[in-house]
Amino acid sequence: MSTLDPCADSCRVPAAYGALPVVDVVPQTESLPPHRPATLRSPPGAWCLCTCGTRRTLTFVDHRVALAAGNNADWCDLVCRAHGVTTERDQDAWVALRRSPPLYPDAVTLRETTPAFLDRIDTSPGCSVKDSFASADLSGYGFRVLVEAEWIHRPPTPGIVRRRLDWSPVRTPGELRLWDAPLSPALLDNPAVVILTARDGDDVVAGVIGNRSAEVAGLSNMIILTADPDRVWAEACDVLGAHFPGLPLVGYERGESLEHAHRAGFTSAGPLRVWLIPDGN
Question: How many domains does the chain have?
Answer without folding.
Answer: 3
